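FW: tagging you since you asked about this chain on Friday. Here's the raw sequence from the shared folder, copied in full. Didn't touch anything.
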Amino acid sequence: MLKSLSIRNVVLIDKLDVDFQGGFSVLSGETGAGKSILLDSVGLLLGRRADVGMIRNGCDKLSVIGVFEVGDNSELAKICSEYEVDFQSEILIKRTLDISGKGKILFNDEPITLKFLKEISVYLVEIHGQFDNQGLLNPATHIGVLDKYGSYEADLIKMKNYFDDYKSVKKAYDEAEKQYISAQKDEENLRHWVDEFQKIKPQENELVDLEDRRRQMMNAEKILENLTAAERALNCVPQSVRESLRQAQAAVARVNAIMNDKFSELYDLLDTSLINVEEAEEEIAAASNEVNLNQNDLDGIEERLFKLKSLARKHQTFVDDLPRIWHEMEEKLNSLAHGEDNLQKLAREKEQAWQKYVSAAKKVSQARQATALLLDRKIMAELPDLKMEKARFMTQISLKSEDAWNESGLDDVCFMVSTNPGQPFGHLSKIASGGELARFMLAIKVNLAQTSQVETMIFDEVDTGIGGATAQAVGEKLAKLGENTQVLVVTHSPQVAAQSQHHFKVEKQVKDNVTTTTLRQLTSKEKQEEVARMLSGEQISDEARAAAKVLIGA
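HL: got it, structure written out here
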């Protein structure tokens, strides 16, 4: 839920800090007092476009901060994980905009994108009345709403898993078919190319080895000269390095005999050096022998390099890629030999997976039909209380074209309404009357409140075009909705306001020719006085105060 809101320099608001509670809260005030500014500010926290025209006159920057308590909302946590943003049960969103049009969005002090903000906003607040593209007014959300209302989650999971299985098998089939068709087209060339590769037999990392050997042979004389010099250095006259080390070691041994092995580490060092010298002599001899043996292989290496590079040019690739290309060509030929059988096998598996999916999806469709009937009846039962006896609500479930079937099943779901007898059903989002729309949304939300992951709902203009008993009924429904959800309502209706648990008043003040909007929570006595004002206008009569007391039930 929305715990607190802090606004700085937004249109008429200079500085505003307000804490909200759960349940049903009302915001009232005279026309033009600035109620819409509050909603615009909340809209900024939900990803609405920021406009420099919202910055208070004379200021160079605006900011809006909202603190939300979201509990363990799994969907919200999932989105945060996808964006690698730390998720907490309480989140703070801050949005700023300066006069140059540059803005920042922070999520618990971490910078985030507008795209991310819009994605998480649908799990934070639903605003009905001003932002008609959110929540239930978007037909794309209706299938998810219906599924959450129903009790067939296990069937939904099974359907999705079967669809994932089908996609996996279909991908394997498509790849095998593509390879088989390609192999068929190039069969003659493939056979010729594979024969050519088999004659040359390119090996992994062969190019580096051949070029090293060629470099060695082309520099054999210089290499042998230097290896001989190294050998002479180790076996210099009058005595070799090995003999010198042995003499030194013998001398140290004699000292150790006198000093009780005090210099044993020195003896070991000389021993290690002697071993290294002997190994070096062996390696030099082996290297010299290798160079001598390979001097005559230069022509063969040059020829091998020429063949490999020529083959690489022919296939427009690098020499190092030749073994891979050879393997792929052989696989294509093998797919021709066994491709048809493999395709038939995969086709059977694909058909089986598809049938399992369709069977599971049909079961879900049946569950949706039954759930839709139940939901329709419950919403229709709410409408008379909202003085919409002649209105009708219907959940329309239609079969999608087969190529559009997906993990959500076979169905399109859309909430449809008719507001007058003889009027055809139309999309909920197309209802013209703000008052009717708000009441339809209210009837739906009362029934869906326990399955919704949105904990805050804001209704603007919920009382448009209604009064008396109808407004009383709307207030009662809002109070009922507030039992499970935080409900904030901007209203001019005293009947609606009287039902609230918490009442806030939006006021406009003028001081030194500067207009400022403020918001404060009313006491019980102040609430009664405000409801009386809503009943009678500026001049509050005793009769209005008495009527307000009756409405509130004080």
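FW: The mean pLDDT is 85.
HL: agreed, and Residues 181-336 form one domain.
FW: great, closing this out.
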